[in-house]
Amino acid sequence: MVQKYQSPVRVYKHPFELIMAAYERRFPTCPLIPMFVDSDTVNEFRSEDGAVHVIERRCKLDIDAPRLLKKIAGVDYVYFIQKNSLNSRERTLHIEAHNETFSNRVIINEHCCYSVHPENEDWTCFEQSASLDIKSFFGFESTVEKIAMKQYTSNIKKGKEIIEYYLRQLEEEGITFVPRWTPPATDPSLETSLSCKKPAASLTVVVPDPALKEGLSSEPLSTPSGAPEPTAGTPDDKLDADYIKRYLGDLTPLQESCLIRLRQWLQETHKGKIPKDEHILRFLRARDFHIDKARETMCQSLTWRKQHQVDYILDTWRPPQVLQDYYAGGWHHHDKDGRPLYVLRLGQMDTKGLVRALGEEALLRYVLSINEEGLRRCEENTKVFGRPISSWTCLVDLEGLNMRHLWRPGVKALLRIIEVVEANYPETLGRLLILRAPRVFPVLWTLVSPFIDDNTRRKFLIYAGNDYQGPGGLLDYIDKEIIPDFLSGECMCEVPEGGLVPKALYRTAEELENEDLKLWTETIYQSASVFKGAPHEILIQIVDASSVITWDFDVCKGDVVFNIYHSKRSPQPPKKDSLGAHSITSPGGNNVQLIDRVWQLGRDYSMVESPLICKEGESVQGSHVTRWPGFYILQWKFHSTPACAATSLPRVDDVLASLQVSSHKCKVMYYTEVIGSEDFRGSMTSLESSHSGFSQLSAATTSSSQSHSSSMISRWRFC
């Protein structure tokens, strides 16, 4: 594999001619580079007017490698050919170098360039690129590659120091100004290359200057966060080292190279807007600066952002009032490192109510808007605090967390949100402070943690009870003055307190689809209409015995009877029921019937659970451990009143009521899932005991235990 390196633009705040005078002092040898033993001039050319000077040297290097490896290779020194092409007229120096030793086994190429800064002719820019391709090396290819990269990066770091050293040496000798080249016809008497004239520029050399970027009126190298990105292909779209240090942080030479190469690739291949530099850097960090992996994930994210118009979400989307009232989270000042601080009172939030009232897509969109706002706040804090801030801190208060938060559809929606955020907002979480974790937290953590990246998990700090108030607690990360009041702090926190979402705000899947939220292509919940004489049925095929069927449904209108049947043979393909002569459709949901009218109970199919009567407004959650493979049918049937069921003869009132079909219509919203029994063991207990947790949300709670030992059904009635 070919290793490549591309440096940022390093800016020296000195004229080109003075930098060249300092550079020439590196030859024939440089004591600041111990591995650079000596150099001999092989070829030299100088134009008649003196504007062009080309010199070729053979450089002798003492590579810091294991003695055994040198003995196997049969060499003590490595030789490189370096060709320097100085053009004083254009004020450029191009340096090309390649290895002479082992050139048939290892190919090393390097190109460097000194040139005048495009916006300030008294400044000098330096760029460097290199490639390493090891064909074969006595079976030590990997070792040689590591040694070469280590040596190269260490010399890169020294490059700037060496120029600064010789600039100071020139100053000590009284040389502070070098005149520019002029044509002989204009000034034939000009023969000296150095003089001691009044300096034209300060000798303060290459000091990181936070204001450098702001001082460049047309942003020649790169723009800070929030400024327009330069267009691809222009000479002014390069990153300089001072900008990287000021806005992106301290990076190793190889990390800088990965950033620049990926940025260049994006400019070449993506004709539209590319991410800001700090966001590109996040993808690289998330993939340990593996440029190919970072490129793949970033391209997927760019496609996703474009498809769903995420860049405009803060300007075009307003959170529903339900979220503003019941989503217990919000931004709250910043931590001690200057990171934006987001507070989430998860224990006080009705996750089930939010999913039922809004759907997963609206919740996802809200979480995306939070992340987009976080990116914006990071940019602002970078400018305010004068240092790179690319992530935020999240404070999660778990007081009030109980079994109701382990509601499986809610956890599943959470996992989907985590998946989307991990894929598109990597390395945005700087620290996660989890406070007042209750005993039930390990169960939730077991469900969620496998979906969280290892790098992210290492940023979690978990405190049980009041441990956050002791040493190593909250005060180590957040100033006392901004600790929220609900954590015994002094600062009033404007984050909503959450609470129970009114059941009147619950909506069906069809109603949610009408909102035209297309960020996700599927919905956890489906809705169905149940009519008298026309139950709604769904088919679940079980291949392995002891699988677990789980369900969760709300009875939105009317009373229904819930049944579970088993059949060894598959029913006919589902058909939409038109209710015969009534020709009644189901605008509020599907109505599918699977059990053929000619089937007989006990012969063609069997009941595996006792019927469960569910009243309007009830939420039912349960599971069934299957005993046999085959086909299981979950059925919701219209529940008739006892008076109607007492006699086989219809009453006059019943006949009249049958003409008003709307009174014989029920609505249910349901979710089902089939999982292996081995994966369900950890959730059996939570489902069995979840009614106690939900009782805190409801005004009245009922529970029902079925006689079948392999099944658990629990339900809650919200009044």
Automatic annotation (TrEMBL):
User: GOLD domain location, by residue?
Assistant: 521-674
Q: Which SMART domains match?
A: CRAL_TRIO_N, SEC14
InterPro entries documented for this protein = CRAL-TRIO_dom, CRAL-TRIO_dom_sf, CRAL/TRIO_N_dom, CRAL/TRIO_N_dom_sf, GOLD_dom, GOLD_dom_sf, PRELI/MSF1_dom, SEC14/CRAL-TRIO_domain
Q: Which residues form the PRELI/MSF1 domain?
A: 3-175
Q: Pfam families under this entry?
A: CRAL_TRIO (PF00650), CRAL_TRIO_N (PF03765), PRELI (PF04707)
For the region Disordered, give the residue spans: 214-238
Q: In this entry, which stretches build a coiled coil?
A: none
CRAL-TRIO domain: residues covered? 319-495
Protein name per the record: SEC14-like protein 1 isoform X1
| Gene coding for it | SEC14L1
